[in-house]
Amino acid sequence: MTPRRARSAQAGFSLVEVLVAMFVVAMGILALAGLLQASTRYSKMSELRSTATLLANDIADRIRANPMGGEIGTGGYDITDKAFPSPLAPPHPPCTSEAPCGPVDLAKVDLADWTARVHATLPKGSTWIQYHAGTPPAPEYLDVWVGWADPLTLSPGISTDHSGTECPDTWKKIEPSVRCVYLQVTL
């Protein structure tokens, strides 16, 4: 009879085993919570980058539709304000059949509309467009940057040096959490 009693005394789990199992499960749950937080953070970052890319493509299409508005000295699409966030482009009367616009006026209408959309859709939305005269056979082109302050890097404990090389240096000095999308538009 003693062997039976010895077997039944060893059946079941000890308190140490139960505590270790609870610890392992708790660590797994914490890891999943951290994964969920990172997933949310990267999802928001991806959303902002997609929005900025769409806005940069929008102005690129407007520039391609009005290449004369981007030429140097016209005051058209060239906006290189060093401030971050950049100011809105000054409003310009819309083009109508009674008051048609030339290429420069159309560029100003485009910029007023576009910069307002950038400011409305991105946190600290900023714009930078710089004209470069091409020497033949190289074509003329414009550099287009759309920038925003990444709200996720403004939190304490998160590194703010994520801007990389795609942003203008003057913006990185003003706002270390700046993120940018860059396009080069050939005229």
Helix content: 40-55%
Unreliable segments of 5+ consecutive residues: 156-164
- The general outline is elongated
Average of per-residue pLDDT values: 80
Gyration radius (Cα, Å) is 28 Å
- Strands in their spatial order, largest beta sheet: 1-2-3
Q: Could you say which structural class the secondary elements and strand pairing correspond to?
A: alpha+beta
Percentage of residues in strands: 5-15%
Annotation, overall tally of beta strands: 3
In DSSP terms (H or I, runs of 4 or more residues), the helix count works out at 4
> How far apart are the first and last residues' alpha carbons, in Å?
97 Å
What do you see in this structure?
The chain has 187 residues and is an alpha+beta fold. The chain has a three-stranded antiparallel β-sheet with strand order 1-2-3, covered by helices on one side. The termini are far apart. The protein has four helices and three strands. 27% of the residues are buried.
